[in-house]
Amino acid sequence: MSDCARRATYQDVLDTPPNQVAEVLNGVLHATPRPSVSSRNVTSVLAGELYLPFRRGIKGPGRWALLVEPELHLGTDPDIVIPDIAAWRRDRMPQIPMRNAAIFLAPDWVCEVISPSTEALDRRDKMEIYARELVAHYWLIDPRLRLLEVYRIDGGRFARVGTWEGDVTVRAAPFDAVEIELGVLWQE
Fold first, then answer.
1. Where is the Putative restriction endonuclease domain (predicted)?
2. Bridge pairing between strands 137-142 and 147-154
3. What is the pLDDT of residues 13-51, one digit of tens each?
């Protein structure tokens, strides 16, 4: 952003039409179309797969707070980021803050379901912000390619630790205590 450019504010986010997702990344307002039904399906199914074992502890370890599309305010001059799904270990977030619209604590895991309109932001700007905030795990899911990419923070940068495609069953950190059938994400 140039010195003469105005830094986007939270008011810019609030003024964005409701059919768009508004985020402030590195001081720039980005308004993208709401996720497609296909992307929302992937998000919903994955959140459902993780909810019982990791939030509730049914047939899994529990001890996680999972949220779909939380509003995150990260950094000192905050970036306003809306990941598709985010999760915090309960030892870092014992209670989900219910009084605020935003969460100011960086998650331990973020998942973005990429689309043509968001892929560049998810792979560049958001990935850099999550790395800066030391989010330990970052997943990218591409429903068009039926692809899961898993990254882990390493020395302040994300290193890819695995890529899976199609209908395979995976165990991927930090949720490797259970198997996830990728095929269920692509079902209509």
1. 16-172
2. antiparallel
3. 999 999 999 999 999 999 999 999 999 999 999 999 999
Residue 147 near residue 164, CB atoms below 8 Å: yes
Domains of the chain, earliest start first:
34-186 (3.90.1570.10)
- pTM for the full predicted model: 0.95
Contact of 173 with 137, CB cutoff 8 Å: yes
Distance from C-alpha of 88 to C-alpha of 106, rounded to nearest angstrom: 8
Q: Specify whether the CB–CB gap between 79 and 24 falls below 8 A.
A: yes
CA–CA distance, 42 with 45 (Å, rounded to integer) = 5
Note the pLDDT tens digit of each residue in 58-110.
999 999 999 999 999 999 999 999 999 999 999 999 999 888 889 999 999 99
Q: Where are the beta strands (DSSP E) in the chain?
A: 20-25, 28-33, 64-68, 71-74, 79-81, 85-89, 102-103, 109-113, 137-142, 147-154, 157-165, 169-170, 180-181
